[in-house]
Amino acid sequence: MKPASLFLLPALLSSLLFFGCSKTESPTPFPEVGEPYAITRGPGEHLLANYFGINAWSSDGRYVCALGIDFSGRLAEQTDTAIVALVDLEDSCRYIPISRTTCWNFQEAAMFHWLPWQEGLCAFNDCREGRFVTVLLNWKTGEERILPRPISAVNASGEWAVSINYARLRLCRPDYGYAGDGQDPLKSEVWPESDGLWLMNLKTGEERLILSIAEARNLMPEITSDDGLAYFCHTIITPDASKVFFLARTVQDFNAQLSTRGYVYKWDTVSLTINTDGTNLRRCFPDRWQGSHFNWKDNETLVVTARWDGGECWAHTVFKVGEEQSVRHLAPGIMDWDGHCVFSPNGKFISSEGYWNKDGYRSWVLLRLEDEAIVSLGRFHVPDEYKEQYSRCDLHARWRPDGRQMAFNSVHEGSRQIYLRNVNWK
After folding, report:
1. Contact at 8 Å (CB) between 63 and 37?
2. Smallest Cα–Cα separation from 157: which of 55, 241, 52, 234?
3. What is the layout of strands, in order, in the sheet containing 45-48?
4. Burial of 349 (0-12, 13-18, 19+ CB in 10 A)
5. Which residue ranges in the chain fall short of pLDDT 50?
6. CA atoms in the 13 A half-sphere facing the CB of 219
7. Cis peptide, bond prior to residue 3, ω within 30 of zero
8. The pTM is what?
9. Contact 1, 393 (CB under 8 A)
10. 146 and 128 in contact (C-beta within 8 Å)?
11. Can you spell out the DSSP letters for 13-74?
């Protein structure tokens, strides 16, 4: 793989001054991003224990969360147990199993989160006594506590979590839900009033429904078939726990899709935000813009990949809640693809990596927000055996909170493993 290189394409050059740099100003230097190196190895395969953009490092930067698995090529079932583990970066990448879980998938893993309010404390999803729950584990002491709902997102302080129905999600997006009977999917209710977006206090276990699926109906795509289903997925909470971004989706002809292909393959999406007190439910975009990947820069500003103007073109967009009419289209004509977009900790760059192209390679880039200049962070090959829909290996990159490392999953060396890259800021 070639070292990272800077390229400014002709279509981009004309916009440099418009997006923030005068002739006398020097833009923020790009960081030097080092070559990838694996921190896990066989036997077996490994992935980061949570979704893209979520912190994987302990507060001292020594440990990285991992999930150990022993198969690929299919969905995870309720009988498939994964190992929840840590990789000790200061002890030759020693692999430390700390627990097990049956609530996991190849995309979001077990939604592991570090909880900074107690040393050694982490949270992840599991099925206990027949229920999907959150496990709070102090891996240093072994002390464990169970909370009543699985986590979908956690705020920066580790106090507040968002929860959704992972059994319902399994019906509509099997690669993101959990198998088994740990939650009632409410399959017979198209617009349930008793389920939707939950807020849970990780210190007390207190939980409350802040938005039912029925309450969001007027902002969601209409269901015109006799056999439909509406659901929420893909949540992210602001650092101060004041707002949640999430995707709301509807499925037409649910059972017909299942009988045709065995899974749901078509849905309609809207991107929504809401205050965690249940107020100010807002659409992020007009009709047909949809939404796919996302990240908070701060407590107001989002990057979201969406279909620009409701067309076929995916775009990286940036906007503030309450100022959605002023959405910014990043590097039009160049960044027009659906990527896992993540702000750098200093908020000045966006890392984004997408899906494999016709040659089987994934591209990864770093965009500078000041002028929309772009650095290539490399291309990563995906062998055919890792292109299966439900067990695919997306890079799912994320930054260490201090910006000094990046972590990602990859199969470019022949098996699914976890990689780090060191980052040097000039």
Report:
1. no
2. 241
3. 45-48, 63-69, 82-88, 94-101
4. buried
5. 1-23
6. 24
7. no
8. 0.93
9. no
10. yes
11. HTTTTTTT--TTPPPPPPPEEPPPEES--SSSEEEESS-TTS--B-TTS-EEEEEEES--SS
